[in-house]
Amino acid sequence: LPNRPLAVRVAPLGEGLVLLVADDRSEALRVDETRRDFVANITHELKTPIGAISLLAEAIADSTDDADAVKHFAGRMSTETARLNELIAQIIALSRLQSTDPLLAAVPIEVDDVIDDVLDQARALADNRGIALTHQRSSEGVVRGDRNHIEAALRNLIQNAIAYSDAGARVAVTTRLVHDGTGDWVEIGVSDNGIGISEADQPRVFERFFRVDYGRSRASGGTGLGLSIVKHVASAHGGTVTLWSRLGQGSTFTLRLPARQPDHHAEGTAA
Ligand code: ADP
């Protein structure tokens, strides 16, 4: 095993013989390194809003005789606090996804109902930015899973489609049933004709804390964790998420989840 980190143990067997046991530590070291990177990234990401809040508090203390300035700094302080809250909520969501199996509490979920809820929540943001939202439904898109996780994944995809598009853009959500050699799937497409993602960046956008453009992500309240949450939700439900994109033309994220099998029909559907 050339160039592999090995942990070697030696056990004498008697009569001049020894047993050599070599454990390949590559995977364990990789996991360790990923964990260390994640903690370092979290520390860095938390320091940014905390640093801003502390500077804003000082600015307020220095401006007590200027009511307008106090109001301005206080407003920015609440934006930074909201960012901190969102970051902590996403870190918790990601760590829950990694430590529990969402299929343990799986219920049947009508995907189009979840999409309607997410679009309702996103409508104010889309209207604000002059972006049209459309939803084309399939007649029987039902999956089994954890509703909160699936809603979080769809919210991330739809909020991104809005955040990374300019005024006048369109965000289209579609669902359809797909039957292929590997099984029956509910396929959810979230398409935008926004800024797009270069081919070089496409493989990296699902990594934790990766942003193509830090400034734009921050301005839209992004944390860099949304797509890694989507990826974890997909794989925890036995599904996949894929990306088609062209710079300057737009992006389509496709989330495929296993369709509910017919023998579960008696269960009804989750509210
Ligand atoms: P963020 O919180 O920054 O949006 P995500 O993990 O959701 O983090 O996405 C990672 C990065 O991928 C974003 O910062 C952005 O650069 C890019 N991205 C995600 N969705 C889109 C999209 N629909 N169009 C263009 N770029 C996108």
Automatic annotation (TrEMBL):
GO BP term, example? cellular response to phosphate starvation
Q: Which reaction does it catalyse?
A: ATP + protein L-histidine = ADP + protein N-phospho-L-histidine
Q: Does the keyword Transmembrane apply?
A: yes
Keyword vocabulary terms for this entry: ATP-binding, Cell membrane, Kinase, Membrane, Nucleotide-binding, Phosphoprotein, Transferase, Transmembrane, Transmembrane helix, Two-component regulatory system
**What Enzyme Commission number(s) appear in the record?**
2.7.13.3
Where located?
Cell membrane
In terms of superkingdom, the source organism counts as Bacteria
Catalytic class of the enzyme: transferase
**Annotated Histidine kinase domain residues:** 41-261
**Which GO cellular component terms, listed alphabetically, does the Swiss-Prot or TrEMBL entry include?**
plasma membrane
Keyword field contains Phosphoprotein: yes
The UniProt GO MF terms for this protein read: ATP binding; phosphoprotein phosphatase activity; phosphorelay sensor kinase activity
- The name on file for this protein is Sensor-like histidine kinase SenX3
Q: Which species does the entry assign this protein to?
A: Micropruina glycogenica
Q: What is the lineage of its organism?
A: Bacteria, Bacillati, Actinomycetota, Actinomycetes, Propionibacteriales
- Report the portion of the entire protein shown: 118 to 388 of 388
